[in-house]
Amino acid sequence: MKKTQTLAQLISDKREEAGYTQKGLADRAIIDLAMIENIESGQELFLPPSIRQKLAMALKLNPKKIKSLEKQPEPDEKDFDRELLKIKILNESLKGHICPQCGSNLVCRVAIMYDLEDNMIREPKARCSKCPFYL
Fold first, then answer.
1. Phi and psi at residue 91, to the nearest 5°
2. pLDDT tens digits, residue range 61-88?
3. Phi-psi bin for 61: left (phi > 0), alpha (psi -120 to 50), beta?
4. Residue 65 class from Cβ within 10 Å (0-12 exposed, 13-18 middle, 19+ buried)?
5. DSSP the chain
6. CA-to-CA distance for 93 and 16, rounded, in angstroms?
7. Phi, psi angle pair for 118, to nearest 5°
8. What is the pTM of this model?
9. What is the C-alpha to C-alpha distance for residues 33 and 106, in angstroms, rounded to an integer?
10. How far apart are CA 135 and CA 128, in angstroms?
């Protein structure tokens, strides 16, 4: 059996082992199908605790295993203000942002999530179209 190296591979492999489609996993875990698709395609690299817990329960995994494969943002860019970029994305300025690492275009979006008390949370997301940078 091959060793799972990424969050996307882990979720995809465990979903297939359990015999679920992406839609089936989304229904079983009570997670939006788009979130499952984003996780398995490698676009979601860091999960909110509620999503992590639901996936772990649906796939019979330890949440720590999922968390161990998540990528934490690395604050290694000099002269780059992550908070300013987050504010711009939240204000619907989704185009025209440049990657601080390679200078390519950033793909930006606002993820709408809900916490366990059903409060809406807007989370800015950005990833580089060329290099591994993500927000």
1. -85, 20
2. 999 999 888 875 554 555 567 788 888 8
3. beta
4. middle
5. -PPP-SHHHHHHHHHHHHT--HHHHHHHHT--HHHHHHHHTT---S--HHHHHHHHHHHT--HHHHHHHSPPP----TT--HHHHHHHHHTT--SS-B-TTT-PBEEEEEEEEE-TT--EEEEEEEEESSSS-B-
6. 37
7. 65, 25
8. 0.56
9. 23
10. 9
**Is the distance from CB of 10 to CB of 4 less than 8 angstroms?**
yes
Kindly provide the b/e burial profile for residues 79-93, where b requires at least 16 CB atoms within 10 angstroms of the residue's own CB: eeeeeebbebbeeee
Domains of the chain: 1-72 (1.10.260.40), 74-135 (no CATH)
Instruction: For the beta carbon of residue 106, count every other beta carbon within 10 angstroms.
Output: 22
Q: Which residue has 């300025």 as its token pair?
A: 93
Query: What is the Cα–Cα distance from 40 to 11, expressed in whole angstroms?
Result: 7
Instruction: Give dist(CA 73, CA 119) in Å, integer.
Output: 24
Is residue 18 over pLDDT 80?
Answer: yes
